[in-house]
């Protein structure tokens, strides 16, 4: 959370930093700020609110001149979102200025010590403590900025991606990373700094991703010196060529990133299995998996760790792994798993699922599993992300950048990867018949077409959204493979429309939620043709008997539920194990339209952030 951007080179820094902040707003958007060196002084402007508010403020506050600049978009951790707590932060002398993504956990004791030495603080942030600690080290030990940053960081506990510069040495920016991501774009005589590559992709395809506990001194028109913060060892910069392009990070005619990302699903699901699934030949080949297949099939169990929507993808995987590959699976919230002294052995395989590859709790769960000797497999979307590097092996989803805070295409591409893994293991283990295996491969290959067909109900779903937009509660019910989809549907609605919604296994309804049902309660029921169809129909009858309103997701051609439900949303027929990939589509659209009708900020819902790098 929080996005950081920086530039040092021969161009005007202001537009680069502002544009970069706009692209990183998904990481946090409660305040924003910028600091430029104009050749003489630091020009600093910051405000509570969004990057657009910062631009307005900067118009009257600063000259916007200068070819060195840093900027920040915030998701508050220490201190409420207000102008003063916004970044950048000055040191007491006014010479140093810093931006920071992360948390300094021991800031309070450092602050007390600095206060005893005469330092004063304007904000409630841990970041202002850090910049003053750097200043104190620099003064006391009479060292250059880079050294001072290194010494100071050796004293702090926590997570950070920082960029700092000194007014008296305006030809360099010092950056450092631990726990929060930091990419350096390498151009011709110019360098870019950002939390991900999106702010600089139109300028350069070459990037260096700092590793944890590394820092870099970036010098205008010269070079980058990377060091390990603890050992002081110099590290040879490893420049990667990025595959990202500018179209992928723009809205491309859609009103919101979320809608664009929902509509991208047919193509990104295909991108995710392209070259890996050869349906006609009966081949599934996942580079990261091949060598480790014996580990998976001989494992006592698979433990899946994840957070949020990725956790829901893990729940879907539990059904498919157990059903097809007959391997016991446990799905854990990473945040719970890591703190409950879990039993993990060398015979366990841990799968970590994360769109961003940066979620702090998932990362901590991975570290714990590795310490206990488990083999850890990652499923990430962001190439080069921390989780993708920390895991022993893994598979990338190829969803492209997901910018809407509410996750959509990441979910379906994660399920696509997990399904391919389950099918591959089932085939090798012999727990699936040849014909069933071939049928699944062919059907998986059809999913993009089915998703495109499900998207055609958009207008109808918009009409349903208009009917229920003022409801204050929603219940989502599903069974088997579609129970996690019910959870995900409810989460989508909560996240972007702020309507209370609960997902429940349909059969459990009578053990509690049925008490909530009256004529004001819309109940979204996933009632596709499956093993549980008859039972779900009975659940619908029970809801109708209590005057609840039924919005049902049904298989094309369904007649029974169509008769009973108040509204239906159709999806194409596919084997039950693949249905989450299609039933989730109408639920995404329903929550999207309700949020739009309620005038909510769909892409940047309040209090949330795309990438949660705090624990
Ligand atoms: C945040 C996001 C969710 C996401 C979750 C896990 O809460 O808002 O959309 O599902 O983090 O993120 P990850 O990047 O690990 O999948």
TrEMBL record:
Pfam families found in the cross-reference section: GATase_6, SIS
InterPro entries the UniProt entry points to: GATase_2_dom, GFAT, GFAT_N, GlmS/AgaS_SIS, GlmS/FrlB_SIS, Ntn_hydrolases_N, SIS_dom, SIS_dom_sf
Keyword Cytoplasm: yes
EC number, as in UniProt: 2.6.1.16
Enzyme class: transferase
Domain SIS per the UniProt entry, residue ranges: 292-431, 464-605
Name this polypeptide is given: Glutamine--fructose-6-phosphate aminotransferase [isomerizing]
Origin species: Patiriisocius marinus
Taxonomic classification: Bacteria, Pseudomonadati, Bacteroidota, Flavobacteriia, Flavobacteriales
Gene: glmS
């Amino acid at each position: 959370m929080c996005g950081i951007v920086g530039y040092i080179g021969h161009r005007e820094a202001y537009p680069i930093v502002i544009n970069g902040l706009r692209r990183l707003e998904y990481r946090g958007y409660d305040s924003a700020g910028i600091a430029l060196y104009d050749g003489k002084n630091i020009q600093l402007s910051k405000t509570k609110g969004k990057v657009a508010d910062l631009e307005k403020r900067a118009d009257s506050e600063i000259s916007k001149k200068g070819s060195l600049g840093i900027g920040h978009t915030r998701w508050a951790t220490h201190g409420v979102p207000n102008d003063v707590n916004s970044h950048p932060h000055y040191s007491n002398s006014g010479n140093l200025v810093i931006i920071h993504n992360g948390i300094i956990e021991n800031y309070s004791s450092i602050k007390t010590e600095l206060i005893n030495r005469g330092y004063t603080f304007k904000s409630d942030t841990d970041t202002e403590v850090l910049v003053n600690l750097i200043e104190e080290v620099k003064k006391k030990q009479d060292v250059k900025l880079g050294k001072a940053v290194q010494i100071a960081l050796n004293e702090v506990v926590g997570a950070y991606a920082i960029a700092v510069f000194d007014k008296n040495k305006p030809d360099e920016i010092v950056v450092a990373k631990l726990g929060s991501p930091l990419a350096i774009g390498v151009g011709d005589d110019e360098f870019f700094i950002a939390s991900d590559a999106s702010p600089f992709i139109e300028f350069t395809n070459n990037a260096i991703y700092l590793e944890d506990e590394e820092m870099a001194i970036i010098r205008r028109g010269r070079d980058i010196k990377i060091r390990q913060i603890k050992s002081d060892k110099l590290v040879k910069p490893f420049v990667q060529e990025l595959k990202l392009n500018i179209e992928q990070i723009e809205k491309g005619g859609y009103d919101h990133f979320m809608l664009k990302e929902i509509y991208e699903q047919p193509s990104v699901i295909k991108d995710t299995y392209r070259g890996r699934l050869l349906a006609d030949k009966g081949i599934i080949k996942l580079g990261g998996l091949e060598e480790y297949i014996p580990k998976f099939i001989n494992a006592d169990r698979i433990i899946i760790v994840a957070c949020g929507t990725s956790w829901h993808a893990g729940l879907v995987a539990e059904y498919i792994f157990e059903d097809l590959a007959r391997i016991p699976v446990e799905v854990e919230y990473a945040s719970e798993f890591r703190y409950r002294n879990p039993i993990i052995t060398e015979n366990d395989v841990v799968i970590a699922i994360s769109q961003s590859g940066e979620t702090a709790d998932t990362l901590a769960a991975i570290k714990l599993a590795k310490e206990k000797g488990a083999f850890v497999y990652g499923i990430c979307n962001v190439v080069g992300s921390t989780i993708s590097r920390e895991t022993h092996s893994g598979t990338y989803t190829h969803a492209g950048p997901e910018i809407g805070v509410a996750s959509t295409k990441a979910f379906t591409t994660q399920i696509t990867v997990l399904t391919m893994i389950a099918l591959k293991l089932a085939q090798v283990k012999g727990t699936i018949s040849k014909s069933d295996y071939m049928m699944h491969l062919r059907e998986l290959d059809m999913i993009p077409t089915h998703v495109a067909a499900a998207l055609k109900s958009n207008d109808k779903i918009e009409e349903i959204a208009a009917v229920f937009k003022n409801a204050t509660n929603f219940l989502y019910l599903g069974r088997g493979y579609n129970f996690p989809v019910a959870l995900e549907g409810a989460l989508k609605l909560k996240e972007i429309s702020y309507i209370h919604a609960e997902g429940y296994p349909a059969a459990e309804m009578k053990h509690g939620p049925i008490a909530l049902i009256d004529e004001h309660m819309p109940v979204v029921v996933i009632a596709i043709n499956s093993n549980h169809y008859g039972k779900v129909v009975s659940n619908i009858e029970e809801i109708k008997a209590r005057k609840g309103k039924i919005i049902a997701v049904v298989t094309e051609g369904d007649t029974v539920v169509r008769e009973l439900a108040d509204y239906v949303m159709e999806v194409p027929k596919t084997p039950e194990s693949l249905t989450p990939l299609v039933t989730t589509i109408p639920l995404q659209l329903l929550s999207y339209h309700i949020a739009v009708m309620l005038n909510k900020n769909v892409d940047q819902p309040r209090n949330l952030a795309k990438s949660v790098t705090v624990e």
